[in-house]
Amino acid sequence: MSEEPGQRKPPSRKEPLSPEALQKVIDAKKSYWPFALAVSVSIALFGVVMLPYIIGTIIICIGAALTVASIIGWGLERR
Amino acid sequence: MATRTVVEGVTLTRRKPFGETYIGEWIMTTDHKKIGIMYIVTAFFFFLLGGTEALLIRTQLAVPDGKVLTPEIYDQIFTMHGVTMIFLFVMPMLTGLGNYIVPLMIGARDMAFPRMNAFGYWVVLFGGLFLSISFLFGAAPNAGWFNYAPLNELTSDCGINAVICTPGMNTDFWALGILMLGISSIGASLNFVVTILKLRAPGMTINRMPLFTWMTLITAFLLLFALPSVTAASILLLLDRHLGTHFFQAGAGGDPLLWQHLFWSFGHPEVYILILPAFGIISEVLPVFSRKPIFGYTFIAWSGVAIGFLSFTVWAHHMFAVGLPLVAQAFFATSTTLIAIPTAVKIFNWVFTVYGGKVSFKAPMLFALGFIAMFLIGGLNGAALAIVPFDYQVTDTYFVVSHLHYVLFGGTVFGVFAGIFYWFPKITGRILNERLGQVQFWLMLIGVNLTFFPMHILGLLGMPRRYYTYPGNVGWNELNLMATFGAFTIAVSIMVFLWNFITTLRSGEKAGDDPWDAFTLEWDTTSPPKPYNFPVIPTVRSRRPFFDKKNPEIADWKTATH
Is residue A49 within 8 angstroms of chain B, CB to CB? Predict the structure, then answer.
């Protein structure tokens, strides 16, 4: 049976993809959310070290807010 | 007059997205190879930091009544030396090598969870910085790398809040830093388990996996099962310090020994977490430089599994002196002795891999052979420590310091350098200078033995570990001076490596794709590999797939039964 025009056969695992196509697949995965989440968690925990001073509580709140934002950002990011 | 508008030289420029800038490439990367390199570089930075701390300790102890450091700073330095070397050098270094090499070895294009992989790295970096900046506050952790109770919270007259008794931030830095690093390790371990179990190339059965991959898999399981206890302990400690609980306060009905049980039920599997990947590296290097398949593949692989299981049954050998019941002492002495059996199985197989081979004494091979010799010493004096009456005599003396450094420096660090010299050409495309590698090896071998062998005798003579200084009339002077001289010899060997590293990166000899005529799939790629690793996922038919590809007429799969 012949293929219809415009219909592409999915690449089989054994067929080599072009380097450009492979590069594109890899590039699609870049993200700054892992970095952002790690920074946010670090800030929150640094606040714990600063307890019982008030500055500690403030830093924890900032870190916690950034952590939540990073988790949401990570979750909503298009892959 | 008509007006003429001239538009000349108009070029539309697009601002480069952050992810395409040099810094953005690294910050946003999810490529296992880049993450592996970041792990390795970060770990090496912390190795230099931990090494500097070691030199400070040895300088303080070089002569009696030393006054190089204050007692308070000395406590912080020896604690952070342990924390840095274990959590910030060895673990990230082995994770980094695994990150870079394992997907290539099993014919995968990346780790199973690339973003979680990136997150794990960033947490290690910030966790390490978090622990290290404690020095800037004059409050680095100071209760030993194990952070024993009651040193971590003090017990008497504290009222309800332990933080009042130890108002410094030292212990909080330790507990929170370890929590952060634990998060990273759990993420990395899950990633390794799923990657190895699910992303292997077609035909790569469990029994055909490279041994480094085997050991990385076992290590990942160990981490997953060992980390919860230290994580729980850290949280309980923080509750004691900040919310008025008394888990570890004897005066308030708590139990300081609970800390030791929780810590060491993580801490002893941790020793194998630090050494098993080095076993894997050695099992890759020895066959290539002996031009033979590994001897006793199945035994090496499954003895690793046996070590993994047994490592959860030996923790209280760190606690013989606390007054354990007799039956517990007998149990832990027996299990500790038992673990020597699978370890000896590995050494036997490594020796017989080399025996009868066409041995090439290149730098990776030298470090691998050095590993076997040094680890054997560390294993034998470890078996001695399993004998309870002997342990009573030398517990918390320099004998124990000697044992753990023969295992972790003579073993793991030699294994790490074997791996670095072996895989550096794959990672960078350049080959480290062989002559400098040999100089480094011999300096390091001499340095390690000069530093740590005298510590056996110091321990037998009764020198306690962690003491700030010692009097000049107890017969420890010469041995301490010798150990200090050895420590600086090791430092020189590391300088040689740094010089080799820098000059090789700048103008080193090009390596080619397969400079060692190796056997496994990571060498079947370019050096350094392309981001996608393999244009076509290879098909595996034996334990040496790249050897088969290069030598189809004598391919392993034609004769092997596995």
Answer: yes
